[in-house]
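Quick entry between incubations.
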Amino acid sequence: MDAQTQQKIGIIGGGLMGHGIAYLLAAVGHEVAVFEPAAELRDTLPQRLQAIVELLDDDPALFRRICAHDALVPAMRDATFVFEAAPEKLPLKQQIFAEIEKYVAPETILASNSSAIPSTEIGRHLRHRERVLGTHFWNPPHLVPLVEVIQNEKTSAETVRATMDLLRDAGKVPVHVRRDVPGFVGNRLQHAMKREAIALVASGVCDAETIDTVVREGFGARTAVLGPMEQSDLVGVDLTLDIAEVLYKHLDATPGPHPFLRAKIKAGKLGMKTGEGMRKWTPEQADAVRRRLSRFLAAQAKARKAGLGK
Ligand SMILES: NC(=O)c1ccc[n+]([C@@H]2O[C@H](COP(=O)([O-])OP(=O)(O)OC[C@H]3O[C@@H](n4cnc5c(N)ncnc54)[C@H](O)[C@@H]3O)[C@@H](O)[C@H]2O)c1
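Done. Structure below.
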């Protein structure tokens, strides 16, 4: 990467998402400075980055382009882009953005990785709101290609364009979300499906294992290469209407989260961390799921990189 295209990038928060975002941007040649207030997280950053290097067979030389800071100001120095991956709390994010604005140029792009908080709210009190937007990476950000680039009512077209370019050049697949709606696009789709899955299990139509088998071995088997709109066109929009006419009135429309979900929480069934959630888990079974996912995503990431001739 030449000096002109290399950017100085600030990352706020070196946790789960922040370290992966730092990695993927350093891997393509940018200089990355991470502000992480917790000493333990700063200390473990090299190990966590090393684990990604090993997973992806990357060149460890990229570490030279990532440094961790215990203060905001040095991490923001000369930054052209800032990606915020701090805890999901609006007052905290607002305070962080107000601080950042004091130390960066008016045109520095300020992107929040919030899963649900609109960047409209995060940037509400800033002077230069046209450079604020959402960049919703998916976990793990160094492996999942998609990034939703969410424009809010104040974001300029130039901010969207520059952010999409940076992410595309880093090997990501950015999509432009034109309005700052809750859940953006990906989580709305994901949770529409989960809502129906929970209702099917709650009403005894099938068990949770069956839901996972149906998705993984059924339409999920083709989802990576065929989106739902392509699929509608493949079978015909007329067939899609015929099915909608019959089916939609039967789909779950429980207002708010399903009581089945609340009952799980009340019973302490929180998922793998408590040994039971939707399904039952031994620690070994839970580890096997994590390994399966990590290996699958890493194999896909490597194949993409090989395809790009990197
Ligand atoms: N975990 C996911 O799957 C996921 C996916 C997409 C988006 N997100 C979003 O990304 C953001 C970060 O999530 P995460 O999972 O990485 O959380 P995390 O808890 O792993 O990391 C957050 C980091 O921010 C640090 N931090 C705390 N206060 C700070 C401050 N004042 N300034 C800077 N850093 C501070 C913490 O020490 C921690 O290391 C959240 O907004 C979350 O909603 C998470």
